[in-house]
What does this fold into?
Amino acid sequence: MRTRSLIPSLLAGIAIVAAACSGSATPSPSVAPSAAPSAVASAVASAVVSAAPSAASAAPSPSFAQAPTMKIGVVTDVGTVNDKNFNQFSYQGAVAGAQDIGAAAPKVVVPNSSNDYATDINGFVSQGYNIIVTVGFNLTNATIIAAKANPSIWFIGVDQAPLCITAAGAPDNTFKCAGDPATLLPHFIAIKFEEDQAGYLAGIVAAGVSKAGKVGAIGGINLVPGVVRYIQGYVLGAKSVNPNVKVDVGYVSTSDFNKAFNDPASGQSYAAQFISQKGDDVMFQVAGKTGNGILQAACTAKITGIGVDVDQYLSLNAAADPTYGCILTSAEKHLSTAVETSIQQIAANTAKGGNVLYNAANGGIGVAPFTPSSAVPADIQAKVAAALAAMQAGTLTTCPATCGQP
It folds into this structure.
């Protein structure tokens, strides 16, 4: 039997507050991730809706007294809700948040393509929803437009900060970013994670267990800053343990988001060839559902796999499925916590719009327990703990000057 260590992921159970950090509000989560993936999959089966846009109707500004009657909708990115990764655990947070405030279970819609983002968001608007959660960087522009047009509805954008808007509150594709999101979009909570911190912790583990002195990282696409930050942190973390370690980096696609994040077969094929050519003995995946195929290739090659966003040893049931049995740990964004906390804050009238940062200091990121713990030497476990403490103290640099840029 494989055992799981109790290396702490991060802080939880602290009061909800807001503080300034690099121009972003930094809340302290009041809860830790709760519902198990199997429970989420069950909830997903009974919660899918097809939303069609009609005449928009403004929802009232929510208050704690209104919480039991609040309607919560979730628009995921393309793929599936039960992707055992980003969509699923963001939705899980919405489910938990609804339970916390006594509201009905949230409804969820999965876009068929990026062309459906605005349509699906407006479907919830037209049905009088009070809180609309949109999942992923790709939905940023559609969420900005909806939030501007519907200022009394709360929007929670997962992985959508920092927001770049014009002085009029519209998406700014020129990246001049003249508008202040907290002022112009006061009911839009744009959640950002410091992926480089979680990647840095994973890099420490990778270099610490590598026998070949060669480790790899495969991202879905380099057009998503969060993917790049994960890998940049991973490189720095690995080199903090072994300055001479070779870190090989690749991307499944340069333009196709579906292939990058929703195509396990492409991930497996790409990773199998990559591993064969590079000779890495640890592989970190940053590619959503495509990354499940990357982990399959790593396990087939009998090297160590490192998951992303959630504890993939648990979410992929690696204890029972040898297809994923090589997963040692995962670089985590505490997606469920971020969404659940935001819903709690809205219901309690303590929420603030704008860019909201989740990092090591407030329990927003971490590294999953090691499986088995004996695979990670004690000195490496100590390095992980020390790095985490330094991140919490704000004394550790985990991303280069070009952070988020390919």
